[in-house]
Amino acid sequence: MIVMGIDPGITGAVALVGDGHLAVEDIPTMGDGKRRIINATGLADLVRRWEPTVAILERVHAMPKQGVSSSFRFGQALGTIEGVLAALIISSRYVTPAGWKRHYRLPAEKDAARLAAIQRYPHIADRLARKKDHNRAEALLIAHWGREAV
């Protein structure tokens, strides 16, 4: 089984794990600064190229005290991801952040996921080297979780 893990959002990432496949990329976006949106065509091209069996998305929601505009943009990003997967007939499942992090015994802080992904996948540690690569690490761990749980 080839599993795509998705850490959704404008700064999110996608990863592919299984059957000899291993890849991680930032979610393709377009626009500038505050006006960035997910590039649905770019994401669709990536999904077509990777040909996952199933996609595991982190089940996310608006955060308390998050602004209306930020919540709207986040929901739009998630909807774009879900729409691309549905259009390409990729089966999607969801996991809460607490669910997959509990599986790895990780605390809530972002860097713990990055370090865990580097330990699990040392041959692509260069793709996870920066602190801001925590989204890539989370996508990898979500995909790996999906391989074991689905």
Describe the structure.
This protein is of the alpha/beta class and 150 residues long. The protein has one domain (3-149): Ribonuclease H-like superfamily/Ribonuclease H (Nucleotidyltransferase, domain 5, 2-Layer Sandwich). The chain contains 5 helices and 7 strands, in the order βββββαβαβααα. The chain has helices spanning 40-50, 68-87, 97-104, 110-120, 134-149; strands spanning 3-7, 13-18, 21-26, 29-30, 37-38, 54-58, 91-95. Helix 1 (40-50) packs across helix 2 (68-87) and helix 4 (110-120) crosses helix 5. It is globular and about 35 Å long. The N and C termini lie close together (9 Å).
Across the major sheet, the strand order is 3-2-1-6-7
Number of domains: 1
**Rg for CA atoms:** 14 Å
Assembly of the depicted chains = single chain
* Low-pLDDT regions: none
> What percent of the residues sit in helical stretches (DSSP H or I)?
40-55%
Identify the CATH architecture: 2-Layer Sandwich
Q: Round the mean pLDDT to the nearest integer and report it.
A: 91
What's the overall geometry? globular
User: What is the tally of helical segments?
Assistant: 5
CATH class: Alpha Beta
In terms of DSSP E residues, the strand content is: 15-25%
The largest sheet, given as strand count, sense and whether it forms a barrel, is: 5 strands, mixed
Quote the distance from N terminus to C terminus.
9 Å
CATH topology: Nucleotidyltransferase, domain 5
Query: What do we call the CATH homologous superfamily?
Result: Ribonuclease H-like superfamily/Ribonuclease H
Topology, number of strands: 7
Structural class, from secondary structure content? alpha/beta
Helix-strand pattern: EEEEEHEHEHHH
